[in-house]
Model the fold of this input.
Amino acid sequence: MASTAAERAQARLAYGLVAPATFLILIIYIVPIAVVIGMSLTDYTLISDYYEFTGLENYTRMLDEEPFRNALWNTFVYAAFLMPLAFGLGLVIAIAIQERQQFRSILEVLYFLPVTATLTAMALVWAALMDSRQGVLNGTLELVGIPGLNWLGSEALVLFSLAIISLWALIGFNMVLFLAGLTAIPKSLYDAAAIDGADGAIDKFLKVTWPMLGPTAMFVAVTNSITAFKIFDTVAVLTQGGPNRASEVYLYLAYLEGFEYFNMGYSAALSLVFLAIIFAFALLQALVIDRKVHY
Amino acid sequence: MADIPATSAAPAPSFVLWRKRMWFHAGTAALFLGGLIMVFPFVWMVSSSLKPTDEVFDSNFSLIPRTFAGWDNYTKVLFEQPYLTFLMNSFIVCAGILVVQLLTAVPAAYALAKLKFRGSTILFGAVLAGITIPINVTSIPLYVGIVRVGLLDTYVAMMFPFFISVFAIFLFRQFFKTFPDSIIQAARVDGFTEIEIILRLIVPSAVPAIAAFSVFSFVAHWNDLYWPLIVVQSQDKMTATLSMLQYQSAFDNDYGGAFAGATVITAPMVIAFLFARQLFIRGITMTGVKG
Amino acid sequence: MAELSLTDIRKSFGDTEVLKGISLTVADGEFVSLVGQSGCGKSTLLRIIAGLEAPDAGEIVIDGQPVNDLPPKMRNIAMVFQDYALYPHMSVAENLAMPLIMARLPLGARLPLMRLVSPRHKAERPGIMADVEKVAAQLRIDHLLDRRPAQLSGGQRQRVALGRALVRDPKLFLMDEPLSNLDAKLRVQVRKDIAELHDSSGLTFVYVTHDQTEAMTMSTRVALMQSGTFLQVGTPNALYTQPERLDVARFIGSPEINNLPGEAIAGRVHLAGRPLDLQVPVDGPIQIGIRPEALAVADAPGLIFPAELDRGHLTELPFKKRLLEDLGPELVLHGSFSHFPDVDIRIRAQKSSKFRLDGPTASRTDLDVLVDPDMILVFDAQGERLTTTSRMQPVEGVA
Done:
């Protein structure tokens, strides 16, 4: 069907409007992704212009090499410690704040403040608080008779210490998301539950709050896993992967390979595996969010 | 049908009420205690920034400095060390990124939301796919490209990967979708040109979304460490965040000054948050992914 | 079966006093409506009866037992909410079973997954499901038991909400604007259903609404509320024909009562400067209320007016018609008396089969309207009702 003059004019306008964005998407997303894919099949390094096509060697190397498994494992341990705590504490605090509307503003400020703060700077503060000899944290522990810990200097502890810092920065974030979910629950449901006999904290939570919060909870869980998987800043500032690579997490390894050792090909392959994992999370999220909420 | 016991053996109501109230107050106290723990690092940082170096790690920890060195520390940070340059660099980069993002995203989002043209589905698909791709994945080719064109260690290099925000396009498109077509048609009947429709109807209506996105973008790039770490080489292009990494060695000898620096770098976002709390909360939690 | 008694209930939210000492007794089996504009305190009062809100002062007694300190579940009440408050994640059957599960199973047996292992759960389940099915059949929703609330129409959700209230066999049935989310046609249907439910169950109902029609059609008594107090409590007929205040007369009845300024001279009511055959015990400015159906148009073929209009002592006033609304069986004429050009007047008249839209009645704009003193409500300047006597017969307002 022939388009009318008005439709053609509209299309012309549309192309004008999307042109800058399209051009930038092309050179910032599409071309680089294509290049990353190509590069991951080579042994390209920034240092020399000569490189060879190596096929899937970079990927098989990942499976063979200890650093890759180490980084994946470290990231996983860190996330496994961080996520349940960030989820649980965020939820409990949100519910508690929701029941105390008169303090909501001040509590929101207190808990959300760490989210806004520049983590790189605050990481240095945390390092000082966690200092094994003179830090406030160990000082407090010793005050109650617990021997101090070498928070960031011990291979066994460093991932947990990093997770504590991330937890501090993430609780307020989850709390706000949960609060939004809680606010959307109709108050009359709690009234109906109270009349039905569900007026205790446990019954209220099980019969109303938790089922109604389902979509929010899934959203928080999925986006938190992406956040956890992207840990980089605190490692770069505080431990540089140490001690003895005990805190070498995935993105830090990819960064080292690419920008310290200039193994661009291998780093590209690492990046693509990272992208695949993020994609899996995003897909999960899309499926969950698209699922029709109750009404 | 059911018979619900009118008064099953229940403890005296006043006692139940009292116990409930006690739990409530205990919960409130616990919440505030937790809140204090959350802000303690800030308090400690500001306190340390006012102390002379030897007092920061004194075993007799006290929030109030025994010797007040705040004046020395802050004049040193602000006038002898290049922290003001770092802040300015961060500001230039964040502002530049935001301006270009808005200029490219708003028109594109409007076209995707309200105009019919061939290829819109493909473009929108690219936008959706782009949302999931973090800078960490594309950093290598972008870096290589920047090296090749000789732009390493420039403001352009620091801003370039963020000139387009596919998230902004997506967000604004969703927002514009809800804008009633009838108003746009009425404006056309009234003789508005398409550009006027965007500037005088669409953009003003989108101010809340634009404001929230601006906060999101500004905070994200202010706090970003990864990309500046890759493309910045010289001290006069260093951002505030990056300076924390580079100046970590300074912590060995000048603790008071270092934490004064940390305070200066943290302050802008924290103060802005305190002034526009709801906007910040909306902006920062917009994507669900922190950091 | 239960009697509800409220004594001097008071409630404030911050500085706003929402209830200013409410006392009311609802007899066993009564249907009492709390009516008033939004913000009058009616919903708060209902929530206090339910136990969802605690009064600042006053006593609530259900069936002779003070319940102030009892939580809602121990008051033996049921409540239907404006938005129905159905649990969206549960099927209709589970929604209906909720009150029974909460009442019959201990906390341990109610926890997730416990249904698989708890012996109490196994033992109680058949009884609960039998009760659920009984109520579902009674409300004709037994074919919907497996659906979720989102899959139901508004009217069906309404029934489920009623069912959830009924299933626990309450003594007292509380309803908070249950019809406001339904369309006009369904509302009439559900109104009938609720009235029938009240008749057949014999339960005590307390019903909150802002819609006077709902209150008038279903209730045995109506309590009209304004800013935290009762203006008047009485049967629908009493509120309509014997309003104690002008506010009551204006709230009850549609179209709204006509309200004209008048004067009492030497105890005799004057309207538009003309003496009416009506005595009041005061002198000075008064307010005159005339129901739209208490006015008649002179020489209007095709319209039927009350037969008891006694032509002998009627007063005739010139009237300018502006608009005629044809409601099918009846007409509403809008216009004003020439003496009070700024006061909108509504006249309601039955049509007879002779009425024609192009006939003389419909086409004229200048009419003569007859006022019957016996059909007039007289209020003093503050809006308090005045006792009236007429030459013909000593009456108190309209019989």
In short: The first helix of chain B runs from residue 13 to 49. Chain B touches chain C at residues 1-8, 10, 13-14, 17 (CB under 8 Å).
